[in-house]
Amino acid sequence: MISGSYREGFRLKKGSDMDFMLWHNDQRIIWDLSQCQYYTTHRQTLLLCDCSDSPPGYTLLQLLTLGINKYVQLACFLMKDKIYVSSSITRLFKYSEALSNTTIVNGPCVRYCFGDFIEYDYAHCFACDFWPPSASSWIDRCHSWPQPHIVNDIVKNGCHFVAIGHKVGNYEDSEWRISFSQAEHRLVYSMNHSQFLTYGLLKLLLKEVINMGLSEEDKLLSSYHIKTAVFWVIQQNTLQQWCPQNLLECFWICFKLILKWVYEGVCPNFFIPQNNMFLSKVHGEAQYSLFNKLYGMYKKGLASFLHEHSIMKNHTNNPNNHNLSTLSDDYSPDSEIDFDKQVFCRHSMPTLPILDLNHCMMDFIDKDSYMKAVGGQSLSTKMRKALAQDIQLDNKIYYISELIPEQQSALQNNKAHLYISPFVMLHMLEILCYRHVDTMRAIPALYELQTLVHYDQGLLTDLKDRDISWQILGSVNR
């Protein structure tokens, strides 16, 4: 699974790392023994969480079924008459073969460096299909954000465990950290335009001001702390409206929350608040120094702070930085549309934005209609309401009787799949359904399909789909 800021959509020079999380599908984590029933125990390696002596957000992993993976076997150790899997030994075996002069160990990851700009982090981990009990309070907090269907998706997809222990825990070399990377990406994609820009501006602040000139060991704040602050501010409804006009206020509120955390020495994990992510690093003299630095920025005020550090000057007019031009006074809906173009293209799939079936393709979109329909909404909402792609049918599976001849013909021509424009498919299904329940409503649907097939010039249907579109029109006419 790709993770990190690159997957989130950032393309910052010297700072958009690409992370990879790797795991074996025949290895699974469970939270209690009753969950064994969902797995084939003689084929899969099962590990049981033992959080009894670990700090919040961390756990020991007890081996229940051995499996055949040699790295799991080599990393086992005996404690209190139970067999556990060591995180440190796992890192040693997993990364020893990869280490070279172009790689470094970075926490639970091994980092590959190519030149000065490209960095890839690889983390071997375990997957868990169940939501952590220690994170159940997060579900109860989700009243206004994220939306219920997003919460359900996140919980349904469980979590992961990466090979790193808590530095002040009793079993640092043996513990595993609970990773919510998959859930966090889902949350970032549910941000609206202004929330995402606020997050991006804070990342620039961290990279170009707070951590500028510091070694990796001296950096107390990370982009993960920044992201956590944005999550908390959004969920706690600190701001009534996230919009471009309030962008600097959004930025300032998040900055003040980070300042408060540094002062208190407490950064609560978004999913498990009992997990203080400052505990092992932001304390003592280092905490005092960081607070003085941030408080100095705070005392100067937002306007002078931004002017002095030139974040606005360097990035508001740069179209490659996710349209941070919306920070300026001449904000227009064009910036949000341009941003959406980048996002939709980034997902590398043949997508067609739809607005009441009247507009498609970002290059030809009616901007007023687009903004009216989905302007200011989250990316996930936009993708549900405004995106479609060709329908792909497996020709070995028959879905609709009217399409069987076309699928059989395609198979004879060695074509494994049939691709149909979603617009053509929609009108076809309307016609077929209305024929059985309301024949009068089938007539305008047929007219819409005829108009689309006869007069569209590649705007709503790809030219390569024209043949199947004509065949479908002929089929429903019969």
Q: What is shown here, in short?
A:
By secondary structure, this protein is an alpha+beta fold. 43% of the residues lie in helices and 15% in strands.
Task: Note down, in words, how this protein is organized.
With 478 residues, this protein is α+β, with helices and mostly antiparallel strands. It has four domains: 1-180, 2-Layer Sandwich (Beta Polymerase, domain 2), CATH 3.30.460; 191-325, Orthogonal Bundle (Poly(a)-polymerase, middle domain), CATH 1.10.1410.40; 332-387, no CATH class; 391-477, no CATH class. 43% of the residues lie in helices and 15% in strands. It is built from 19 helices and 16 strands. The strands form four sheets. A six-stranded mixed barrel has the order 3-4-5-12-11-10. Strands 6-7 form a two-stranded antiparallel ribbon. A hairpin with a 2-residue loop joins strand 8 (103-106) and strand 9 (109-114). Helix 17 (422-437) runs antiparallel to helix 18 and helix 17 (422-437) packs parallel to helix 19. The longest helix has 18 residues, at 193-210. It is globular.
Q: What's the pLDDT, averaged over the residues?
A: 80
End-to-end distance: 47 Å
**C-alpha-based Rg, rounded:** 26 Å
Overall 3D geometry?
A: globular
Q: In CATH, what is the class of the largest domain?
A: Alpha Beta
**Total helical segments:** 19
Q: Portion of residues in helices?
A: 40-55%
- Strand order in the sheet with the most strands: 3-4-5-12-11-10
Q: Low-confidence stretches at least 5 residues in length (pLDDT < 50)?
A: 314-332, 346-361
Q: Give the strand content.
A: 15-25%
Count of the separate structural domains:
4
Compute the number of strand runs: 16
CATH fold naming of the largest domain: Beta Polymerase, domain 2
